[in-house]
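Hello,

Following up on my earlier ticket. Below are the two sequence lines again, exactly as submitted.
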Amino acid sequence: MRAAMLSAIFLKEWLKVRWVWLGLLVLHLGMLLYLLLAIRHQFRVEHSEMIWYWAFELRRLLYAPIQYLPLLTGVLIAIAQFGPEMLGGRFRLSLHLPLRADLLVWSWVGFGALMGALLALLDAVALYWIIAGWFPHEAAVSALLTALPWLLGGWIGYFGATLALLEPAAPRRLIYLGLSAAFLALLYQHRGYQEYDQVLPVLIALALLFIPAVILPAHRYRHQR
Amino acid sequence: MTAAIQVERLAHRYGRRPIYSDLSFSVPQGKVVALLGKNGVGKTTLIRLLMGFMRPSAGCCQVLGEPSHALSPATRARIGLLLEGHLTYDLMTIAQIERFYRPFYPRWRRELYFDLVDRLGLPHGHRIGNMSCGQRSQVVLGLIFAQDPDLMILDDYSMGLDAGYRRLFLDYLRRFLDEGGKTLFVTSHVVQDMESLVDELIFLQRGGALRQLPLVDFRRDFRCFGFQVDGGSAPQPDALIENVDLHGREPVLYSFADREPLEAHLATHWPQVRLGDEQPLSLEDAFIGLTGKY
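Thanks for your patience. The regenerated structure is below:
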């Protein structure tokens, strides 16, 4: 695939997701600002020893308000990208482009994942900066490790919604949604800090299987009977 | 002459409902061929099969020498495709959609696209989603022309177009075809448009019966006669009588046969029927005569 083709594909994807992505950017900034103000407020009204006790003895997550933000982001980006393709069967226009369908679909999800990753990076940097403002460096790193499953939730949300939207057969759509929901349920089980450290590499490896999987519904869409 | 499209013994079914069971035809290179048939006979299904969006239950479709369900990107670049309803990317503007398609087609002729869309008098920043159906049809046709395809497949180009835009669409299409070397396979419900456009007709009927013939032969040979019945029942379609229409003021029958053999046939099989005058037929009349009103 030539660079000009890739740039054309990215142009179309950007036109599809731009308003949703900018809206999500505002939402992320708003939520991070809320988190900053909430923690600052707690330190103003409570003794820092008490906050430390809550956070590290009672294992109460100070930054729980942002835990579903990556998931929401992934799902909305997928809908913005693939909803218009499915409306009126426009996916056929894309499948008629003189380009291998697998490269096309991977370019699409590559772009979507990149847009999600930019927001995830914003969350990670802001979370580290906010926590490091009141806690030691180790606590800020711990906050990032604790938030990693949530960021992975964004990936699962994105690919789960993508699979369900691209899939032409309704029963398979339900299967994709069910598998994605089960995976997500695994990622939101924790009650404290860094509880996924051991299992996260396995979960990430499993989540990477979504990349080859997105080719299947596109193939079925082209060759449906 | 080699075929741009070759369909052999094609069968397709939706669940248990058969659409075709043994469909064979070809579209010669450089010809303009119209696929005509009433709603529900499977015209759009056939286009989907030809473009590889569906896999046939049996048989084979070859498009530009490749199996339709495995068209290579290089072959797809040689096929201009118009999907039903002038489907395109509504979220793009006139300029953006040209920028989007350009890198995919090595023979891209942007001057043809802008020549067509500039006639709309709209700024290049105008969004396609805000256009009328007629305006959108010109954008889509311009994109197909700019691809400089060897084969154009147009599925119901007339859908949603008023008479003016339909004429405009056909005028530009004819001008483009005049450049030579292009093959066009088109479906439409506006049969009279085909009179000045096509070389050959393919009539597709419910159940997959198909008849392919040159337009001039169809216009010359297909006839309509009034008739009267002196008691007894009206004639029925048979080997010589293609169709009988009893819905009009005067009953008529349609046939590819001349008057004399038809009269002899009626005298043998339907002696109570007296053949009347031959009636003039427009292409639409002839189409309905062949395929029936229902």
